[in-house]
Description:
The protein is an alpha/beta fold. It has two domains: 2-195, NAD(P)-binding Rossmann-like Domain (Rossmann fold); 230-425, Rossmann fold, CATH 3.40.50.720. It has 17 helices and 14 strands. The protein has helices spanning 10-21, 33-40, 51-60, 97-109, 126-137, 158-163, 175-184, 197-228, 232-240, 261-274, 280-304, 330-340, 353-359, 369-373, 386-389, 393-399, 414-419, and strands at 2-6, 25-29, 64-67, 79-82, 113-118, 143-148, 167-171, 191-195, 311-315, 344-348, 364-365, 378-381, 404-407, 423-425. It has a six-stranded parallel sheet, sandwiched between helices. Uridine-5'-diphosphate-glucuronic acid is lined by residues 121, 151-155, 208, 211, 215, 249-251, 253, 256-258, 260-261, 319-320. Uridine-5'-diphosphate-glucuronic acid binds at residues 121, 151-155, 208, 211, 215, 249-251, 253, 256-258, 260-261, 319-320.
Amino acid sequence: MKVTFIGHGYVGLVTAAVFADFGNTVYVIGHTKEKIDNLKKGIIPIFESGLAELVRKNVDAGRLHFTLDYTPAIPHSDIVFIAVGTPPLATGEADLSTIFEVVEKIGKHLSGYTVVATKSTVPVRTNRKIREILDKEKKKDASFDLASTPEFLREGTAISDTLAPDRVVIGTDSERAQKVLVELHKPIETQIILTNIETAEMIKYASNSFLATKISYANAIAKLSELTGADGLKVLEGMGMDNRINNKFLSPGAGYGGSCFPKDVQALISISREYGYDFGLLREVERINQEAIMDIVQKAEKMLSTLEGKTVGILGLAFKPNTDDMRDAPSIDIIRELLDRGAKVKAYDPEAVKVAATKIKGIEFAKSAREAVEGADILLLLTEWNDFRKMDPGEIKKLMRGKAVVDARNIWDPSEMRKLGFEYIGVGR
Ligand code: UGA
């Protein structure tokens, strides 16, 4: 099959490379010359394990093409996937301007019959607007059907998530489009849910918001456990053993971040409001998340009495391990608050320092974990990279000036840390 992806972010690039690897001819259309030139050489703009190799392999095999031009791709494609960003506006609604811009261009280039499928996360009913634009722009003899095929991959495990997802969701009102999309997804062995467009769009928002709700629930239970003297991690472990609940996305910490959960929770609140429903549960999920982020600073301040003039060593800046993504990373809010309270900050992340330096000002970026820890009055562990788990806490103790540690991802054993002479505090215990 011939497939085009508009957009080469996590979703577009990973899915395009995987479909090319299945033997399809895949075009990826971008709008920045430098990025497209780099992609042609196999230089990818994101850090994702195994992706550069998969892209290079399929470019070399002549199955994966990168272009700025819609002309060689769209008229010959069986399916066009829209995979551009939908960042939040100040109001919390998703910004759909890029979607509508690219849809206009797709419309102008349609030829014969094409399935136009949305992979970007868009509010319910966006597809109606897409249909209007395509109808207006397309040539008379071109025809199309619309579909929604939301993506569930996670950064850091994007390729394996795409190859073995829990489910594939195909939403369309056309039998012909359904057939084409089922055929494309055949090499993926999983359950397929076939439904209409609105339902598919809603499945994506409902899933991400539910996972965010689980995390906020875990953070609330962790806080309550700290206050009552219960062991929050044991409480959550005990809850997770009930397979109606399960233990996934039940780890408390410095709150959820990234380019999806914060944006999608906000967007679902906005969508609800638009339809006259106040989704109060999700407003509370957001509030608890912000509280969990700020709680890390409060713990640090409590341990040192004041943060004024203190040196804070930070390990981990990315919103989660195995990515260099800093979008909505809890570390950004935490560092801003530390600086406001007069602290000096030295931070290290195995992959995200370069990106972080464009978002965070007024701190020192260390070249190694050792350097970040050296001379620190307090250490904050914000992202659970394996590199940090491998460090010897005894050595950390020797390098630090102080002995306070806030372990926001519970990677260390509290009693061992205390034995080594640390004043240690985690989340929920
Ligand atoms: C999330 C979803 O998990 C994917 O299914 C979805 O496709 C994606 O959003 C998207 O909409 O594109 P992602 O944002 O890459 O994926 O990362 P997650 O692994 O879900 O982590 C999100 C945040 O939750 C991170 O900040 C992480 O630290 C936090 N988290 C996760 C916790 O605090 N506790 C947990 O138990 C799990």
